[in-house]
Amino acid sequence: MKGKYHIVVQNNRLRYELTVRRNITIIRGDSATGKTTLINLIEQASALGENSGVDVVCERPCRILSGNDWNLILPYLHGQIIFLDEENQFIKSQEFAAAVKASDNYFVLVTREDLPNLPYSVEEIYGIHTSGKYHDLRRTYNEMYRIYSPDLFTGKVKPDTIVVEDSNSGYEFFRAVCLEHNINCLSAKGKSNLKQAVPSSGEQILVVADGAAIGSEMNELYQMMKTNVRMKCYLPESFEWLILKSGQIDGKVVQNILEQPEDYIDSQKYFSWERFFTAILMENTQNSYLKYSKSKLNEAYLQGKMKQAVLDVMEGICWGKEEEKDRTLLKGL
Amino acid sequence: MLKIIFGEASGGVYHPPTYFDNRYEDEWITDPLSVKMIKEIDHSDVISVHLIQSPVLGAIPVRDISGGVKTLILMAFDKSGKIFNASVCGDNCARWIAELGRQKDLTINLHHVMDFSEVAEFEALIVNTGKTVHSYEEYLNEALTIKER
Questions:
Q1: Separation CA A117–CA A15 (nearest Å)
Q2: What is the pTM for the complete model shown?
Q3: Residue B17 contacts A where some CB pair is shorter than 8 Å
Q4: Which residue from A126, A226, B85, B143 has the fewest beta carbons nearer than 10 Å?
């Protein structure tokens, strides 16, 4: 399934609006914000249609999946948006992760579980807040907000140490850049090792990880950031996305894709977006000097203009250039 | 004292709100402690043992209070010896969990690292490691050493 879908669920008292654009969306947050009520409304509408008195407006059918026979039902569902409430313990199983991977549906999961088996994006973790009464003052209007908003990750950082999730090309790129600027660079060798890889010293630490699949680590990384103000996270979709975003890869098609990736990424083919970005980078460089391999970095990506273009995408990170400029100016004086 | 088990727990109830719906006692609802928790978490008023006044939903039955508050009430009053999964509680319940743990021996189960950062003077025994933590920072550091969720 591809695309972005706006969903409106409402009855006389409540109105919910949300937009889903990837295969996995998570809803969590404080108690008593209306998560279970949303699920109940969708369940009633799915069971009784318009006779339920609930309006569900969406291009795709929306339904609930629950109970022990979920694995018998799911193979018969296609092109739907499937909601699961937190009572369903099976969502943490490998069997469910495999079923999601093979499915051509989108999933909205109400849970506070980290779900490391599922590669969901930091951008698709939402809470619900009430934004007030709607029109006739009888209906309460609820909308989603991103729990890890972009504001948490902006601001200028001059790292002493960079911890990179990747162990292959991405790490090789940052290791080379860090070497030039006298910055320590560590590879966590996987997202689940990030927390242990972050040094406990008082230095300024920057964690660089694939935002497209880091969702399962965010609760704990965020709490680490709260207790260590000198730790920041930079979470682009992936290292390959940074390269594509740099504008150095030819093709208007690539830039169109980056504008609205959800229109191009088939969730059944790509479990998460970073796999798609790797695929199109490899496809668009296969016959050029920039031929990309995930396992070993092509040296061409470390050359002047190319390397700088990638670093320029990473706004807010100070690599030490300012200091070099200052020193040059001082020499000039 | 508050005792926390990360991951699966023997005698654990994964979805306490369902257990609550089938097992709660009327007198739990009108107890001043429940009245206070329902007011703070759900912003709702207990009118009687069968009726809650919600600012959003209007008059509702007890079954429609939030899953977080249902779980807090179980933690406070249930005598079955069950261990309730506090991961169905939002962070806005953390203060009450800590408070209940100060009033009695309370063992809870967590399938994620709950954020207790808003709790002043937080203390808990982490059952997985046997370590007692005396602050939120100690709790977080200890929780991050445990693989079970």
A1: 32
A2: 0.94
A3: yes
A4: A226
